[in-house]
Specification:
Blueprint lengths: L9 E6 L3 H16 L3 E4 L5 E6 L4 H19 L5 E6 H13 L5 E2 L5 H7 L20 E5 L1 E2 L10 H5 L3 E2 L2 H13 L4 E5 L8 H4 L4 H8 L7 E4 L10 H8 L3 E6 L7 H7 L5 H14 L4 E8 L6 H14 L3 E6 L17 H24 L5 E10 L2 E5 L10 E5 L10 E9 L3 E6 L4
Parallel strand pairs: 1-2, 1-3, 3-4, 4-5, 6-9, 9-10, 10-11, 11-12, 12-13, 16-18
Antiparallel strand pairs: 7-8, 14-15, 14-17, 15-16, 17-18
């Protein structure tokens, strides 16, 4: 007869997908720690919680493979329980229950209290802003809103995350103060759509006011903006960016495409002319702003002519940062009714072509930085290099500044002034400058 184990459970949280999932995992871990549970992030543990992504085909595949991996470990007796939460679980729960029944329980994106209950913990309402951060100590994500009200034809986010719901300014300030007290210096604002912030709570776009409140928090030195939607962008944000040194001259604004026919089919609510004018306004208001965007190629009906329009526009706009994805045909989205008619190899060729153009642009822009000095935050040491970033670079997705650790010492988690001595297409090399 098997006796009940007296060993204490250790809960291992595994995070897949975007920074918004990282944030959700940190909130879960904070709640578990407050319940005196032993919790780890992507380490060993006999109880596993997998926070999944269900955005596009590759992400779904990674999530399913991770679930199968831990279910196998459960069958081998290496872990006792497997719980699944997040976007994939929200979107495909009945299918997952049928196909992978050996998971102990599936939870959606807004099921935190029930997930905690399954883990033998209580949801503590008083823990606003309490998180166990998993990022390096110098930066953290701040999720300012959940969900999305936009009707983009290709996107499944509203299916998984629901309608847009802003968090109150006071709550976000309190959370930021707690992060600053832990030594966080850089705040990365995330949401499905920063542009929409405040419309539901304050009946107006309130991102500028939020930024003005956050810059007052002592200890926070950089505030970075991620995922702004181009249509209806609140231009007063640019004034705050220009006037407040704490706001990084950086914005992530996913534009997806530029051909008018494709933009219309994507239901983006804008045109090539309007988008180009918006970016010109950005550069006029904040001349040294770094603009990051993401594009989709191979959308249903994208002709060679549509692609050439996009390609020529990328050459013309010279984005500081750019990522390009191939279209993923997602069920229950508006575009799913269209024929996925661009062959996979054509999608891939187009994506490669865009990234080759961007690689050259990035190399040229980086060459201009040689000989200049930049204030950098040092994230980590990797091999023989300290790795840092300028204010124009976000973690994991943008350029990095590499400092030879065999010749120079810089403190991880601190700001330091670096002179750029060399540059490649996506890396800068530099030496610390002694400021008198």
């Amino acid at each position: 007869m098997r006796t009940k184990s007296l060993k204490k459970n250790k809960i291992n949280v595994v995070t897949l997908g975007c920074s918004k999932n990282v944030y959700d995992s940190e909130v879960l871990m904070g709640q578990l720690r407050a319940n005196n549970k032993e919790v780890a992030h992507e380490e060993e543990g006999n109880v596993v919680v997998i926070n999944t992504c269900g955005f596009i085909a590759n992400a779904k595949e990674e999530s399913v493979n991770t679930i199968l991996e831990y279910v196998q470990k459960k069958e081998e007796g290496l872990v006792d329980k497997v719980f699944v939460t997040g976007c994939l679980s929200e979107r495909y729960k009945p299918d997952l229950q049928r196909e992978i029944p050996n998971v102990d329980e599936y939870f959606g994106t807004s099921d935190l209290p029930n997930l905690l209950k399954a883990l033998g913990a209580d949801y503590k309402h008083e823990l606003i802003g309490e998180r166990l951060t998993t990022t390096p100590k110098n930066y953290a994500y701040l999720k300012i809103a959940e969900g999305c009200d936009r009707p983009c034809s290709f996107c499944a986010i509203p299916l998984m995350r629901g309608k847009h719901k802003s968090k109150p300014v006071e709550e976000l300030v309190a959370e930021t103060e707690k992060l600053a007290a832990k030594g966080v210096k850089e705040l990365i604002l995330i949401a499905q759509d920063l542009t929409y912030y405040g419309l539901d709570l304050y009946k107006k776009r309130n991102l500028a006011e939020l930024l003005q409140a956050l810059v007052k928090v002592e200890g926070i030195e950089w505030i970075r903006l991620h995922y702004a939607f181009p249509t209806g962008f609140p231009m007063d944000v640019l004034e705050v960016m220009r006037e407040e040194p704490k706001i990084c001259n950086y914005i992530d604004i996913p534009l997806q495409h530029i051909s008018d026919a494709i933009l219309k089919s994507m239901r983006r609510g804008t045109t090539q002319a309007k988008t180009t004018k918006l970016l010109q306004d950005f550069r006029e208001a904040v001349p040294d702003m770094a603009i990051r965007t993401t594009l989709i190629v191979g959308y249903p009906g994208e002709t060679e002519e549509d692609f050439e329009t996009l390609r020529d526009w990328v050459k013309e706009m010279r984005f500081e940062r750019l990522g390009c994805f191939t279209y993923s045909h997602e069920e229950n989205t508006h575009a799913y009714s269209l024929e996925d008619d661009v062959p996979e190899e054509v999608k891939q060729r187009r994506a490669n072509e865009i990234m080759e153009i961007q690689s050259q642009i990035s190399w040229e822009l980086n060459q201009e930085k040689i000989g200049k000095t930049f204030r950098c935050i040092i994230d980590r040491k990797e091999g023989n290099h300290f790795v840092g970033r300028t204010e124009f670079d976000s973690p994991d997705v943008d350029n990095e500044v590499l400092i030879d650790a065999t010749k120079h010492y810089v403190k991880i988690g601190e700001f330091t002034t670096i002179e750029i001595t060399d540059a490649s297409d996506f890396d800068l090399y530099g030496v610390p400058v002694q400021l008198s």
